[in-house]
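Supplementary Note 2. Why include the ligand at all?

Several targets in our set were suspected to adopt different conformations when bound, so apo predictions alone were not considered sufficient. For every target with a known small-molecule partner we therefore ran a joint prediction. The input for calcium ion is given below.
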Amino acid sequence: MRLCYEGLLDTEYDMTYAFRLNASAVSLSLLIAGCATPPAPPAQVGRAVTQEHRTAPGALPDQQAFQSWLADFRAEAARKGISEPTLVASLDSITPTPRVVELDRKQPEFTQTFWKYLVSAVSEARVRDGSARLKENRDLLARLEAKYGVPGRVLVAFWGLETNYGRNIGSFKVPTALATLAFDGRRSTFFRTELFDALTIIDRGHIAIDKMVGSWAGAIGQTQFMPSTFLRHAVDESGDGRIDVWEQTTDALGSGANYLKNLGWDSKRSWGREVRLPQNFDLTLASLDSGAAETLKPLNAWALLGITRADGQPLPKQDVSAALILPSGRNGPAFLVYDNFRIILKWNRSISYALAIGLLSDRISGAPVLVAVRNSDDPLSRDQVVQLQATLKKFGHLKAEPDGTLGSVTRRALRQYQAACKLPADGYADQKTVAFLAVASEQGIPCAGQNQGVALRDARQ
Ligand SMILES: [Ca+2]
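The joint prediction is reproduced in token form.
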């Protein structure tokens, strides 16, 4: 499973990070798992001493170096107060897991488009299941909403996307997976800290060592918290003295609610809504960054610009600040998103994920499907993205080196290019965009595609 949110994350690095962490072992091919706490960017991690441990592609990790690394880690863990029984049970006789390294290194061959992601993430089966879970857990969810201010439908949506309602909590042994990643060197500091935190969770008696399982990246329980998130935000909602987010749904949902409350969830608002744009709308007003906050405006200001609800009815008259996002470009659905949308992004920094949470929470509580009709969204290959980036760089719109990853930096460069060529400037890259830029690159003339791409331009307006 590889996720590439085409043009939906903040920086090029965020995208890579989201791929890797999200490429965990949950069974649904496009389901996200385990992003409750983003790892630090690479610049902050990977001590020089660990770099030499990096395993060559296809090779098995160096066992001798690993055991030496482990001895060092174990001594530090003991100094930090982790008990001997926990150290013995968690670390003695473990070996690095090649599969974890493989999943961490995997590069997506194609970008993942919003529609494809959405069809899988908010499938009819998941909507049906979610509605049933909402009913089954009505009393618990009402209690959690009263206590934490987070609606049950939102908690159930996170539960559904993270682990398919607790079905796919992952089967990797968490200490082993985290030790493998900490040793491997790419994000050593981050995973080393997570490993200490995982051992602390075991040491505190929340979970038996043989049940400390999770995603390949160490995300745990029914809401896939990283161990550090668990230690800061998980709660013993069931009141039995243990925080068991693996088997106690009450603890898992209570912990999710507490985390969202701590992140700043606004109990009085929803996440946002699908909207309709008027003809000839100024597309540069749509946000391209992963915080979806570049062009915040009050709802009534958006209404004055001609935006309506998706069914054409006027927007509600509320004093809410909203940003506009077009996850599939100008031919796809449009959304106005509120502050709670940015709270979802703190859980997982993918706009596709955040929209899926919002839409799933709506659907399971009876809302209809999107009004927008799925547009053509053939995914781009990494090679196509590299070519597109190289052309944008050639014409001075992009400074960074092409890396095959579509992030907000590339989208802003593309928007600048589109504006310069008098094309609709939505910053969205699709197959037609690639074709347009290929003509420009071939001829060495930035907007040469206009001569050969009249149909393209017409089709896009
Ligand atoms: Ca409990």
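The first strand starts at residue 172 and ends at 173. The CA atoms of residues 22 and 32 lie 5 Å apart. Comparable summaries for the other entries are listed in the accompanying table.
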